[in-house]
Amino acid sequence: MPLRLGGLVLIGAAALALRVSETEVDHLLRPVALVALALVAACLLLGMVTTLYVRRAVKSQEAGVPPELQSGGELTTSFRVPNVRALGLLDVQLEWATPAGFSVSLVRADGKLGEKIGALERGRHDRLVRRFTIEDVFGLSSLSFEVEWAVALRVTPVAAPVNASLAASRSSGDAWSHPSGRAEGDLVEMRSYAHGDSMRHVLWRTFARTRRLLVRMPERAVAPQPLNVAFLIAGQADEPSAGVARVFLEQGLLGPDFVFAADGALKPTTRVPEAVEQIIDSIRSRSDGAAGLDGLANQVEPHRLGACVVFAPPVDGPWRERLVAMSRRLSVPATVVIGIDGSDDAPPPKNVPKWLLRESTEATLATGLVALKAALEADGFPVRIVHRPTGQLV
Fold first, then answer.
1. Exposed, middle or buried, 130 (CB in 10 Å: 0-12/13-18/19+)?
2. pTM for the whole thing?
3. Is 393 helix (H, G, I), strand (E, B) or coil?
4. Taking Cα atoms as reference points, which of 236, 232, 266 lies closest to residue 248?
5. What is the mean pLDDT of the chain?
6. CB count in 10 Å sphere of residue 72
7. Measured distance CA(181)–CA(226) in Å, rounded
8. Dihedral, 203, 206, 212, 218 alpha carbons, nearest 10
9. Residues 186-196: what's their mean pLDDT?
10. What 3-state class would DSSP assign to 348?
11. What 3-state class would DSSP assign to 147?
12. Torsion angle of the four alpha carbons 37, 41, 42, 48, in this order, in degrees rounded to the nearest 10
């Protein structure tokens, strides 16, 4: 149906005006009605011709989307749409019908309209359906069509920046320091001379006074003990937590001998590439977060579960009860790491309704996060909240 409500109303009003002009012999009303009908007909005809032209132009192109994307970023693809906006009478809108979770807009590029996309969440997709809408600026007519491409699209969660404060979020209590680390600190300790010691480290003043041959030795280093096991729980608004889990894996914050498993995985992995793939696929388990947590923990040696970290979504749900059930087998409570997004220097809203909605949404999320942190701490879990854009602990 190419006519919109405004076009139908204008046609009805014009038809009524023609009938009245014939009855009342109104020579002013009749030309106005004819002009209105001509405007609707022109918009309708021009829209149909332009739609056929745009459809032919876009179907001859490749998808133009890179196979690797990161959530949270924006880029302009190589896909181009004819610039029908140059006519001044028509406008074109573009959106992705499939897959969901992408923001799409059109920008000027090379004399045409380029496609600017932004991935909102991680995922893996094998088809792309674009929906095009051609409409006139008066809102009288509108035509839409869809075009499908076969693509292999992989979206990874954007990782948090590496920050020294993240090291404090990977351990707690007695698991933080390793007193038997390698001796590599400052020369502040002493011991008796032994064969092979460097003569530069001999304390000659002490030898002259006490006739004891002593040498300086470095203090024993205190190094973080890497965590052994990490889990990712999928849930509502879990994209920041997935990004924090990715940086823990890729930057070695879990240590060289880690075991990782995400919701939906069949078994834990010890390889970073496989762990990242599990993070991507965990989005399919959002509706049933932590359902496989107990089964994954059963596949890990019990002695390795003593140092465990769990990346959790910032929204409470049934996953918390499943986490509590799993933690009963642990000698030390798991450290829960929650990732969040947001910035204090966000641009001001353009109108009052959106501003009120945004403030209400942020206040609700903040209140829920505080309640979730309190509930997890009441269950005995140390909780670390990481701001993904900066990588700092909140």
1. buried
2. 0.72
3. strand
4. 232
5. 82
6. 20
7. 13
8. -40
9. 73
10. coil
11. strand
12. 160
Of 266, 302, 304, 257, nearest in space to 284 by CA: 266
Q: Which amino acid is at 293?
A: L
Q: What stretches of 25-100 show up as alpha helix (H) in DSSP?
A: 29-59
The amino acid that residue 226 corresponds to is P
The pLDDT of residue 73: 81
User: How many CB atoms lie under 10 A from the CB of residue 218?
Assistant: 14
Phi, psi of 55 (to 5 degrees): -60, -40
Q: Which of 239, 230, 282, 281 is nearest to 259 (CA)?
A: 230
Condensed to tens digits (0 to 9), the pLDDT of residues 263-303 reads 999 999 999 999 999 999 999 999 998 988 888 888 888 77
Give, to the nearest 10 degrees, the angle between helix 29-59 and helix 5-24.
150
For residue 329, which of 355, 354, 301 has the smallest C-alpha distance?
Answer: 301
Place of tokens 């092979």: 196
Q: Which residues pair with residue 392 across a beta bridge?
A: 387
Q: How far apart are CA 119 and CA 141, in angstroms?
A: 31
3-state SS, 241-305, equals HHHHHHHHHHCCCCCCCCEEEECCCCCCECCHHHHHHHHHHHHHHHHHCCCCHHHHHHCCCHHHH
Q: How many CA atoms lie within 13 A of 35 on its CB side?
A: 5
Residue with the larger pLDDT of the pair 318 and 394: 318
Query: pLDDT tens across 118-147, in order?
Result: 999 999 999 999 999 999 988 899 999 999
Joined together, the tokens standing for residue 316 give 């409470």
> According to the 3-state scheme, what is the secondary structure of 84-128?
HHHHCCEEEEEEEEECCCEEEEEEEECCEEEEEEEECCCEEEEEE
Long-range contacts of 126-129 (CB under 8 A, 24+ apart): 126/150, 126/151, 126/152, 126/153, 127/98, 127/99, 127/151, 128/63, 128/65, 128/96, 128/98, 128/99, 128/153, 129/96, 129/97, 129/98
Q: What is the CA radius of gyration of the chain?
A: 32
* Residue pLDDT, tens place only, 53-94: 999 999 999 999 999 999 888 899 999 999 988 878 899 999
